[in-house]
């Protein structure tokens, strides 16, 4: 098991508790505990929990917005908005602490989404598969398969938007790249490990969608899957 790949929330908290001398860690733990207290579940899950995954530049955010509108659902991002102000600090930390931030963010998001799933579909731009895959790709080997954490809200379906590097680079050309985005651009072996890590996920695994196509075509392909598998109606 890779040190930054967490199997449950207790393993995440164990890392964070070693760094409580940082104010940002204290704030992260405070937000997590507050969301946990607000959670009144278990809730009756009536709607779909849909996750969009893929490398940066694959079109996840655009597709998430479109699907949210068509499904009249709720869009969430990981890390959730309540943690945005802490992100820059944790992005500057070593991998175990950085991954602990993103991992705990998944649990915060799951608390937010659980009650919404009683009445609305929830569409998420990135979730646990991203957190885990980046942690795995830091290492020389991928291995696998890797199972979903036993205590984290599980998606009904996870779409992976697969794009060629030519298309991805074109879409990223005018962005100011973060450290990891820069590494994706320059390090082909890291990109390969990251892709293979996504493919090594199970329970649930990812469903590949051709992300090189136009936004409209990708949307139609995802809608076709949802209609066929879940009998979902779109506006």
TrEMBL record:
Q: Which GO terms describe its biological process?
A: dTDP biosynthetic process; dTTP biosynthetic process; dUDP biosynthetic process
SUPFAM superfamilies the record matches: P-loop containing nucleoside triphosphate hydrolases
GO terms for MF:
ATP binding; dTMP kinase activity; nucleoside diphosphate kinase activity
Give the record's keywords alphabetically.
ATP-binding, Nucleotide-binding
Entry keyword annotation includes Nucleotide-binding:
yes
Q: Can you list the GO cellular component terms from the UniProt entry?
A: mitochondrion
Record-annotated Thymidylate kinase-like domain positions: 52-210
Pfam families reported in the protein's UniProt record:
Thymidylate_kin
Assigned protein family: Belongs to the thymidylate kinase family.
Q: What is this protein called?
A: Thymidylate kinase-like domain-containing protein
Q: Which organism is it from?
A: Cimex lectularius
> What is the organism lineage in this UniProt record?
Eukaryota, Metazoa, Ecdysozoa, Arthropoda, Hexapoda
């Amino acid at each position: 098991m890779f040190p930054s790949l967490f199997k449950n929330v207790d393993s995440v908290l164990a890392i964070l508790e070693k760094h409580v001398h940082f104010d940002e860690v204290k704030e992260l733990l405070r937000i997590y505990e507050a969301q946990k207290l607000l959670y009144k579940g278990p809730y009756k899950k009536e709607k779909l929990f849909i996750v969009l995954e893929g490398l940066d530049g694959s079109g996840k955010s655009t597709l998430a917005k479109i699907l949210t509108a068509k499904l009249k659902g709720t869009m969430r991002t990981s890390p959730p908005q309540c943690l945005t102000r802490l992100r820059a600090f944790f992005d500057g930390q070593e991998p175990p602490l950085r991954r602990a931030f993103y991992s705990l963010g998944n649990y915060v998001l799951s608390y937010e989404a659980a009650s919404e799933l009683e009445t609305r579909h929830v569409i998420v731009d990135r979730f646990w598969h991203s957190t885990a895959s980046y942690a795995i790709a830091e290492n020389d080997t991928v291995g696998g398969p890797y199972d979903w954490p036993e205590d984290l809200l599980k998606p009904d379906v996870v779409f992976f938007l697969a794009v060629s590097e030519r298309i991805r680079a074109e879409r990223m050309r005018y962005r100011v790249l973060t450290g990891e985005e820069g590494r994706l651009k320059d390090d082909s072996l890291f990109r390969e490990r990251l892709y293979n890590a996504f493919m090594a996920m199970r329970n649930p695994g990812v469903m590949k969608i051709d992300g090189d196509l136009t936004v409209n075509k990708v949307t139609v392909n995802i809608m076709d899957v949802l209609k066929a598998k879940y009998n979902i109606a779109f506006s």
